[in-house]
Structure formats: structure tokens, C-alpha cells
Amino acid sequence: xxxxxxxxxxxxxxxxxxxxxxxxxxxxxxxxxxxxxxxxxxxxxxxxxxxxxxxxxxxxxxxxxxxxxxxxxxxxxxxxxxxxxxxxxxxxxxxxxxxxxxxxxxxxxxxxxxxxxxxxxxxxxxxxx
Length: 129
Known about the structure:
The protein is mostly helical. The chain has helices spanning 11-31, 38-49, 51-62, 68-79, 91-109, 113-128.
């Protein structure tokens, strides 16, 4: 996809895509530990894909790791009005997690593979702290 106009992309749609991209990254990450039992793999993945883990990661990333444009996108996604409700997180945590997923979707659509990988690696480090 060519140059994306950040002001026109629906952040909810970006989060929809970003959720899937991040999930695949996490599944590969935990399989690298050598585990093969699907139930154990699922339990291992939960800490990375839960709203609280993603919110923790994006807050840390906003503190010097993300570019100004990336921070603007995260804030726009965080502030986007939505009718969906979190099942297991408060509203602020859910909005931050959705903003993280929107950033992942945005970078994926823009073909920014190196930046996407760097952000996901750093997010995993932040969640593992």
C-alpha cells in the first residue's frame, strides 16, 4: 500500500488488523520456546495479548520509543469513540490496548516491516518486565 493518510484511516479497522498481526507474532514468539502443547501455548500467550499487557507496552513505548507520528496515531486511536466494551479490562486499559493494536495495523499496512518488528520486540520486553 502506498503512503497512507493517517487522518483518514479508521483506527478501529487498523486495530482489527493489528490484533491479528500481533497475535501471529506472539504465537511464533512463544513457540520459539519449544513448547508444542496447544493448551500450554495458549496459556503462555495470554499475558502478551491481554489488554493490560498491551496497555503496559504502549505506555512504555510512548515514553521515548515511538516517533511523533506514531504517538499521534496512538492518541487518535485511544481517543476514538467506540461502542464496544472490554470484557476483562477497564475502559482506559481497553482503549490503550486498542491503540496499540491500531499502531500495529498501521505499520503492517504501510509495509514498515522493520519498524513493526522493532515495536513488537520492544512491546514483548515491556510485558515481560
